[in-house]
Structures are given as C-alpha cells and as structure tokens.
Amino acid sequence: MTAPLLSIEDLDLRFASDRGELHALHGVSLTVGEGEIVGLVGESGCGKSITAAAVMGLLPMPPARIAGGRIVYKGQDLLTLSDRAMRRIRGPEIAMIFQEPMTALNPVFTIGSQMSDVLCRHQRLSRRAARLKAIDWLNRVGIADAGARIDAFPHQLSGGMRQRVMIAMALSCRPRLLIADEPTTALDVTIQAQVLELMRTLVREEGVAMLLITHDLGVVAETCDRVHVMYCGRVVEQATTRALFAAPRHPYTRGLLECLPRIDGAAIGGRLPTIPGTVPELSKLPPGCAFAPRCPQVQADCEQAPPPVRALQADHLAACLHPVSAS
Amino acid sequence: MSLLRVRGLKKYFGGSGWPRRKAPLKAVDGVDLDLAAGHTLALVGESGCGKSTLARAILRLHEPTGGEVWLDGTPVTGIGRAALRARRREMQIIFQDPYASLNPRRSVGQTLDEPLSVHRWGNRATRQARVNELLEVVGLRPAMANRYPHEFSGGQRQRIGIARALALSPKLIVADEAVSALDVSVQAQILNLLNDIRERFGVGYLFISHDLAVVRHLADRVAVMYLGRIVEEADTADLFRQPRHPYTEALLSAVPVPDPTRHAGRIVLPGDLPSPSAPPSGCPFHPRCPKAVARCSTEVPALRTMDDGARVACHLV
User: Fold this and answer.
1) Cα Rg for chain B, rounded, in angstroms?
2) What is the ipTM of this complex?
3) Strands, DSSP E only, in chain B?
C-alpha cells in the first residue's frame, strides 16, 4: 500500500485560555489518500474545523499549542516547516474553501484581481495570462458570462456564485488536496445541490483529494468515500461511507443517525430517538470515554480511561470498549 | 373552523419614497392560509422567499400592506394598538437563534415573568408558580430560574424560548427556524418537546423551516413558498410522496439523504433564486423550471385547489 497523501498522526492540540489550558484535540489521526474524498463529521465544537486549520497552519500560536503528533503531507511533517515553506504548500499543494464565501473574499477587490493574485504568485503567470486563466476557471465552475463577471465585486454575486468563485480560486493552482470546511452549509438546498455536484465533478476530473468537513450526514453519504466521526476532540469512528451508514459501530454514530429526521424514511411523525444530555464542555470532559455520560450502553469500564481506537473489521475503526454489534 | 385564517396577505417594502417612486419589493404577495387548532402547518422555501416576512406579517410584527388575518374567528388586522396588544396573548413566536433571542442581563425567571407581568397575569406569587411550571413543561428545573442565559447550552436556551412563548397559553405559536441552529442530537430533543407541547396544550404551530426532513417529521400540512407566493400546499404525506409543482419536486430531490446506497435521480436546478425586487414575468419559477413552456413566461399561474384539497400554482398541473 502506498503512503497516503495526508496523514495526521496522533495530533494533540491545546488552547491557552483564562480558565486554564483547553484540550481541543486528543490524539486525532486520519488519512487522506490520493484522489480520495474523505469526510470529517461531528457536531459544533467537536474539533473538526480546527483539525483542518492545523493542517493549513492557520492556527494562531499562541494561544494554540501543538503538544504532540505529526501532520505528514507527501512525506514531510508540515508542523516542522517554516512560515516561508508553508506558504509554498498553501495554495499550490493544499487549498481550502470555507463556509462563508463573503468573509473569505476581500470585499474591496474584484474577484478577477483576487483570482489573478493567487495565479501570479503561485503559477508565476503575467497579469494578463492570469486574467485569462481566471476567466477559464470561472467558466469551468459554471459562472455564466465569465468575461464580464470577472470584474464584479463579491457583493454583486449571489452566495452560490461566491462559493463557485472560491472553488475556482482554490483549484486554479492545481492543488493535490482540497480542504472544504462546511462548503455548502450557508447555501440553500437547491444551490447546495449545484455546488456539491460541481465539487464532485471537478475533484474527480482534476484527481484532487478532498477532506470535506461537515455536520450534515446526508452530504457525507452522497459525497465521501470514507468518513471519520469526531466527538469532543477525538475521532471515535472511521470507516468507508457504505460501512458506516450500513452498520455504525460507535454508539455516538448510531445515535446521530437514528435521531436524524429523514426525508426518505417510512414513518412520519411520532417521537424521534434522541441522544440524552448535551455535549460536555472542553474544560469539563469526563475522565473516561467522553460519550459515556450520554451513552445508552455505558458500562463501568467506560468511565475509567478514554477507550483506544481499534480495528473492528478491516477498514472500520472505533474508539469504543463495547461497540454496537455489526449485524 | 380554522384557528388561523389568512386571506390575501401582502407585505411590500419601500416603493413610495420621495423623490423617486421605485417599484416596491413584494416580499409577500397575496397569501391565503388556513391552520386548524392543534395542527402544524409548515412554511418551507429558500432564503428570501418571504416565509419569515409572512409569519411576521401574520403576527403584525410587520404591519401588512394588505389582506386580512383572523385568529380563532376574530380579526387581527384592522384593529387598534390596544386591542392588538391584548390579542398578542394568543399568538407567540419562537426565534431561530437561542443566543440572540434572550436578554443576557436578565435571569431566566425574569425573562419568563415578563410576558406575564406585561399582560397583568395573576399576582407575584402566582406568576412565580407559573414560571416554575413553565420550566418543568420544557424539561428544565425550577431552580434554574435564577440563572442567566450564558449558563445554558444552545438546546437549553431554545427550551427557555419555548417556555416564554408558552407563558400566556397562546393558541398559535409561530416557530421561525426554531431548530435550525441546533446540532442534530439536540434538535431531536427539541422536536420531541414541540410535539409533546402540541399534544398537551392543543396549540397550533406555524412552523417555518428550510429543512424538509424536519418538516416532514413535524408538520401535518406543508405550504411551499417561492418569491413571496405559495406555489404548492398539501398534506405532508401527499406532498412528500407526490410533489406536484416542479419547484417542490426539485426542492425535495435536492435534499441530501443520509444513505450512500441511494442514487435517486436528482433534479439540479439551473441558476439562482431571482431577486424579489425584480421578479421574472409570468410564473416566477419559469426561468429555472425544467418543464417550462411558452405560456409560463407570460401568464402568472393561479393557485388552484385540486380534488384532494391540495393547492398548486402551475399551468402544467
């Protein structure tokens, strides 16, 4: 087996705060292979976005501090790189798109000038060549009349179009890995369908790997090859998308899938299954499994120490001492 | 008799300014709705379709430009301020963002007491008892009345918002994206609570949401809005089984389903939502409609009632 494109190994991340150090990531490990689409799902505050920010080297340090682990991209540990070296990774190697394209784009420059900046810097193109290339990319992401739209300011575009511009900008430098942090969460459902379709097509055409961060299990099911589920700063389960949705093994994953109202289910109405309680605060995590206080099948040993991640089947891992049976 | 009856409701913004007369933005343009007591009518649509404006116009939080609203057989529109204020007991609203809709400087007890004291409900002792009762109804402990909003999680804050809406025993509760800001595990708890409250107190919900799976779970009837008008309205089971308007069909097919083995035919609509300040001619959906014919671009389709009581505004149905 070849080495994965990106491999996060046992990442331990902490934040200084006035209430002491907050332990945000407790040994997160995940891999993304060449050309693979990997999902990272979880509820607010589980650490999925800061995992992505850590890969991109976007965390302010301090207050953030990496207390352990490695982020290996193409064989080199990104955490050991200088700022200068990291700037050669961001863009041409790893690109990122964010949830809110209005805040990711600069409101006082035209989208053409923002796209050209990126192309001039990383592909060493002239302004003129960069502009042509930018128009080319706007066409590829389905922006009608790209030759005129390129001189538009971000506020003159709709939310869906802005996200298309972000995708064009991210892919224009031919990265090998695209990190997409909730790319369609702010969009309406018909626009989300357009943008997801576009991302899937482009990523496959360009052979780019994608790490898709989302809270929406529906988006994961139809986009990703493999999924990691996070809870309270840990990956609690990882599997192929089919295996995870067919037979979730961690009680948290199963609970999440069960409590989701379904558009395709048989039953309408009635009571939804729930996960009791709420996500614990980072500063008040229990000593054992973080899900133990809410878990329907908790046992005494769950409260001793955090359960290690172990392989339950080939390519199906879970951090649970008493996993849900596979049948 | 319906609990809520809305006829020809309109809400226009702008349009009459000096010195230039600009065309008004027709956020809600002639909406008829009926909601029976103890039932849930969902209002769905994408951002800017006018669903929140419609809800606010019904409650007269926005003064409607035209049309009539009756609650329990008596008018809400065309009455004076004092009379309206009295009627507000009967209709309450739950907002989307539980962080923004509670006053951070007031304890939960004070927040829940406010609607009671504004409407001169009981005396201090009975109001105190009512606050405790409300907290229990929404699954919180009466001892929490002394705490402040920042001490609660998002789900708990939404419970407080629901308790505040219930304080005066309203007949109608408008829930404007009430579960949209919540994580799924908490969302399920709040949906169950809303169901329990409906069964226990017989309130009617006007439930506004962009999340069709949630709507399917909670609503008895669904109205789909597009650019300020209702394009389809039907019983929930019928609408999800057999959508009749092409927009409803596309909207339903666009929802991502948490099942990787399902490869349903998705209708990907071209283009963006048109701006309500410059709506297309004819049927407002025709520029994006995969089934549009020549007539659709010239003639506005009327909202017609079908044999089974559903209403659809489409020339092709």
Assistant:
1) 21
2) 0.82
3) 4-13, 25-35, 40-44, 66-71, 74-75, 91-94, 172-176, 204-209, 221-226, 229-235, 304-305, 311-312
Task: Report the alpha-carbon distance of residue A220 to residue A245 in Å, rounded.
Answer: 10
> Does A229 reach chain B within 8 Å, measured CB to CB?
no
H or E segment at B213? Answer: helix B212-218
d(CA B17, CA A71): 59
The pTM (predicted TM-score) of the whole model is: 0.87
Residues in A touching B218 (Cβ below 8 Å):
261, 269
| CA separation for the pair A126, A134 (Å, rounded) | 12
Q: Round the CA-based radius of gyration of chain A to a whole number and report it.
A: 21
Inter-chain contacts counted by CB atoms under 8 A, chains A and B: 133
For A50, the enclosing helix (H) or strand (E) is: helix A48-56
Read off the DSSP letter of residue A18. B
Contact A195, A163 (CB under 8 A): yes
The residue written with tokens 């290690």 in the block is: A308
Q: Do B254 and A190 touch (CB under 8 A)?
A: yes
Alpha-carbon gap: A239 to the closest alpha carbon of chain B (Å):
13
From A193's Cα to the closest Cα of chain B, the distance in A is: 6
Helix or strand (DSSP H, E) at A8:
strand A6-17
pLDDT digits (tens, 9 = 90+) for A166-221: 889 988 888 999 999 988 888 888 888 888 888 888 888 888 999 999 999 999 99
Asked if A317 contacts A234 with a C-beta cutoff of 8 angstroms, the reply is no
pLDDT in tens, B107-136: 999 999 999 999 988 899 999 999 999 999
Cα A233–Cα A236–Cα A238 angle in degrees, nearest 5: 120
- For B300, other C-beta atoms within 10 Å of its C-beta total 15
